Amino acid sequence: MDKQTALERLRALDRERMHLVRSAALLQWDQETGLPPEGVEDRAEQLAVLEGLAHEKLVNPELGQLLEVLEARGFVEDPPAGTASFPGEDFLRVLRRDYERAVKLPVDFVRECARTEGLSQAVWVKARRQRDFSLFAPHLEKMVRHAQEKTRFWGWGAPGSGTTLYDGLLDLYEPDLSAGDMAAVFGPLGERLSALLQKITAAPEKLQGLPGFLHGHYNPQKQDAFCRELLQGLGFDFNRGRLDCSAHPFTSTLGFNDVRITTRYAAEDPMAGLLSVVHEAGHAFYEMALDPLLRSSCLGEGTSMGIHESQSRLWENVIGRSRSFWRGWFPRFREFFPEETRGRGVEDLYRELNRVRPSLIRVEADEVSYSLHIILRFELEQGLIGGALTVNELPAAWNAAMKKYLGLSPADDADGVLQDIHWSMGAFGYFPSYALGNLYGLQLWEKLGEDLPGMAESLERRDYGGIHRWLGEKIYRRGRRVEPARLIEEATGKPLSSSAFLGYIEKKYSELYEL
Amino acid sequence: MDKQTALERLRALDRERMHLVRSAALLQWDQETGLPPEGVEDRAEQLAVLEGLAHEKLVNPELGQLLEVLEARGFVEDPPAGTASFPGEDFLRVLRRDYERAVKLPVDFVRECARTEGLSQAVWVKARRQRDFSLFAPHLEKMVRHAQEKTRFWGWGAPGSGTTLYDGLLDLYEPDLSAGDMAAVFGPLGERLSALLQKITAAPEKLQGLPGFLHGHYNPQKQDAFCRELLQGLGFDFNRGRLDCSAHPFTSTLGFNDVRITTRYAAEDPMAGLLSVVHEAGHAFYEMALDPLLRSSCLGEGTSMGIHESQSRLWENVIGRSRSFWRGWFPRFREFFPEETRGRGVEDLYRELNRVRPSLIRVEADEVSYSLHIILRFELEQGLIGGALTVNELPAAWNAAMKKYLGLSPADDADGVLQDIHWSMGAFGYFPSYALGNLYGLQLWEKLGEDLPGMAESLERRDYGGIHRWLGEKIYRRGRRVEPARLIEEATGKPLSSSAFLGYIEKKYSELYEL
User: Fold this and answer.
1) Which range is least confidently modeled, A479-483, B214-218, B269-273?
2) Is the pLDDT of residue B208 over 80?
3) Hey, are the CB atoms on A39 and B238 less than 8 Å from each other?
4) From edge to edge, which strands make up the β-sheet containing A241-245?
5) Nearest to residue A286, comparing CAs of A493, A182, A498, A437?
6) Interface touch B27/A30, C-beta < 8 Å
7) What stretches of B289-366 show up as alpha helix (H) in DSSP?
8) pLDDT category, B53, cuts 50, 70, 90?
9) Mean pLDDT across chain A
């Protein structure tokens, strides 16, 4: 088989698998947005069939052989810069990574994991409702053990390898970034944020001067109408995507020209739904601006969870909670809600939107304390997976870290160690993506601001063209062709660092709180 | 392998295939109801992958072997009446039928058919827009040839077999009913309906006395709200289904507890959207009331297109266009549309809804002329597939038959032979289902009326419980376990016949037109 034929065949196998993955994503999207309540049971079985077939297509021996043939003969090379042929070398590298991850796990182990995950999640829901960690503990132990076995199967943490078991879990979401790399950044970050948070909470409550106005009754239909106009204004193409409602906001890619986001509207909190729209729009912009060459291939996705979160958090927080953004949109917001906003201005909204109030709950956290919630989880995960921390010791360790970083003590475990779904699904190593997203986002924003002066004025004019072009060129278009560390370095000239983020946070909140 | 193990394995293979079929149905449903415009291309590829896999699962040699083993050893028997175990014998018979249909067609032929179908449909759209049959003719010739080859592959029409090629196509939609059987019923039916239609069109225009009120501006949101209330009132369970909008109304089964219908609303024609809802509800009631034993198996569907249409057309026409039905619903309709219905009553609505106006277009036809449109197509299809009629002769034959049955002459082929999509998709043999549906529906309604006296009063009270129970027992619950001819005979005590339908039509319209 000649080079071209082998590559074409491999691409066809990959394409078929991606179509199955996207089809499964539609089944899931529908489940969250419109499935009749009693349809859940069949849907779970349908999803299991599609996911099973997608897995079969990935561990297909023919795919493995084609990979070997093409790699061994050095048959595939990237096209010279500036040409538009398919990036074969990146394709082989990324597909090899996906293939290894799938093929190294014994089928029985995968099945056992899926089975216990389902049960673990169900028990977590119950334990959280009953505010009783002890119910969940034995399941969490199993999930930890499975995570350890999984990363061991992948080849991490062997004595003398210089890697840890936890590195392998991080690598799943943030390729090529070790726990050590992250700790080197997260350590100082945690200290600086903690210090700032203490100063803010000690400062006189300047932002409480006026009673807020972003509550009361904001008609959800009108919120939706405003959000659609906003989304379009931000650059979301409704010919290539949708906005729907679901219990938890998410973004789902169902095709190269089919990227869907969701939100939820609460009458008493109009900013929650709106900022979810802006957050998910950040994810969607990434998926909507991929190089068409990568369409329907394993390269046609965001390169990591951290880079993905950099986009969602950049749009939500850095843009969506800025003065300039609201100078652009507040007049229109006021037209939708004249009564609700009577007598208030951009500055009122800006202050209310950026109030810092340390909370026990991650998803309610402000920009200052959010990363602290993540650092706490990162440290605990390292302990759990590395073996230094047992599941029984976890609640106390959680509470101690919460006290240390945020100065708070949960009344019980429901608002503490039981608050997130992630561990019940075995998704250890996922949390750091959120904090990495904050750091990457500000690194990109800093460089973007240097390359495109006058960004504040652009935002006031609601002109996002420059942002889309810059991020599109440096990040979006490249898909999975470039791993996150190199991507950030090529885009900004610097490796991962917290300085841009800290500079932004300290400047913004010192001004707000007159520190 | 023992009997039970073989049956369980066969059921697992069938179940997996059905889950793929349902997943593909979701992709299609989404395409019609919410797919972003530019998502069409990827969706087509995703659908091709899922349909290809579903086909692979059906022609799987293991499935064929298990069928043989179980059939040969007489291993599977139906459970004794009254017990609730899985009906293995019906399962084998129906799965064998599906398997043979799939396995007898060479893979290359199936692929060639799919390819030419896509092109044929596209050209049909263009030819219809340009009102030019000659564009479409060569493609139609190919579709006819493919249909002939297909039915020949299935073993129909061999010399001395006593069957025709067309029989094989009819069998696909209406198992065990030959063209001869149908002709014996359709012939006299056509004559009686034609005669009635002539009398009606010659009668003084009694129904035109008042200008109609079912046009003007009926707010589509209010139409939707009314239709949802109506649908629920008819017995549609929104916990197990949905109502959405699409360009063409349809029903889709996505799971045992997930049956979805669609409609479309036009401000100037409130009855179109409403009657579509009632029509599709008839399909949905059938799919929603299957025996749970048949869930996720090839038996868990309606038994034929004709029986399915009997339900949709029964609910839409016999119930939804009746006086009793509107005595139940008009007061509520008037509350939704007080201005639009001012000064009008049930009788006005009844007359307007049942006005007979022969039309060139099948989908706009009234109850009297509808079956004539079908009989015309049935005769032409017989000619085309049997070889007595060439594609070039078709437009003239169409126009002659239109003149004969409906007394009308189309101005051009767009409103004549080009009006329906079916032939462009190669769906020869499908049309008769619609007329069979009319006949079956009235046979069932007649018997139901004997078993449940006082039906008119029940309808006035909006009480549909008796109808659901009777149809559920006799038809819905049985799924594909019983072929249509036996099903109708068991339910009504009589074989297929047009007398109930003709009795209903002649009585209703003689009264309306005072013949």
Assistant:
1) B214-218
2) no
3) no
4) A241-245, A258-263, A251-255
5) A437
6) no
7) 305-313, 323-336, 346-353
8) very high
9) 95
Q: Beta partners for B241?
A: B259
Closest by CA position to B242, among listed B262, B225, B226: B262
Look at residue B132 and give its three-state secondary structure: coil
- Number of neighbouring beta carbons within 10 Å of residue B130: 14
Contact B35 A258 (CB under 8 A): yes
Q: What is the DSSP letter of B452?
A: S
* Cα–Cα distances in angstroms (integers) from residue A212 to residues A190, A220, A345, in the given order: 30, 19, 12
Query: pLDDT digits over B443-464, tens only?
Result: 999 999 999 999 999 999 999 9
The encoded tokens of residue A297 equal 């291939």
ipTM: 0.93
For B20, which of A39, A49, A254 is closest by C-beta distance? A49
Q: Average of pLDDT values for A223-251?
A: 97
Q: Greater confidence, A460 or A107?
A: A460
Q: Look at residue A76 and tell me whether its pLDDT is greater than 70.
A: no
Q: In terms of Cα–Cα distance, which of A277, A273, A275 is closest to A261? A: A277
Q: How far apart are CA B274 and CA A82, in angstroms?
A: 57
For residue B236, list chain A residues with Cβ-Cβ distance below 8 A. none
- Per CB-CB distance under 8 Å, the chain B contacts of A21 are none
A246 within 8 A of A33, measured Cβ to Cβ:
yes
Query: Is A280 tagged catalytic?
Result: yes
Burial B456-486 (b: 16+ CB within 10 A, else e): eebbbeeebeebeebbbebbbbbbbbbbbbe
Tens digit of each residue's pLDDT (9 = 90 or more) over A207-234 = 555 568 888 899 999 999 999 999 999 9
B57 close to A (CB below 8 A): no
Q: Find the residue in A nearest to B13 (Cα).
A: A49
Closest CA to A89 of A71, A99, A76, A98: A76
pLDDT tens digits, one per residue of A429-472? 999 999 999 999 999 999 999 999 999 999 999 999 999 999 99
Catalytic residue among A280, A287, A352, A381: A280
pLDDT at B509 over 80: yes
Q: Judge contact between A433 and A304, C-beta under 8 A.
A: yes
pLDDT digits (tens, 9 = 90+) for A144-197: 999 999 999 999 999 999 999 999 999 999 999 999 999 999 999 999 999 999
- Cβ within 8 Å, pair B39-A254: yes
Nearest-Cα residue of chain A relative to residue B17: A49
Q: What is the pTM of this model?
A: 0.94
Q: Is the pLDDT of residue B79 over 90?
A: no
pLDDT at A99: 98
Q: Tokens 């869930």 map to which residue? A: B295
Give the A:B interface size as CB pairs under 8 Å. 108
d(CA B11, CA B293): 12
Burial of A8 (0-12, 13-18, 19+ CB in 10 A): middle
The number of residues making up chain A comes to: 515
* Alpha-carbon span B375 to B439, nearest angstrom: 13
Closest chain A C-alpha to B165 CA, distance in angstroms: 36
CB A501 within 8 A of CB A439: yes
Phi-psi region of A426 (alpha: psi -120 to 50; beta: other; left: phi over 0): left
Can you tell me the distance from the alpha carbon of A236 to that of A18, in angstroms, rounded to the nearest whole number? 24
**Helix orientation angle between A88-103 and A3-33, rounded to the nearest 10 degrees:** 60
- Over 80: is that where the pLDDT of B39 sits? yes
Q: How far apart are the first and last CA of chain A?
A: 69
Q: Where are the alpha helices (DSSP H) in A337-418?
A: 346-353, 367-386, 394-406
What is the C-alpha separation between A8 and A2, in angstroms, rounded? 10
Cα–Cα distance for residue pair A103/A60, rounded to 1 Å? 9
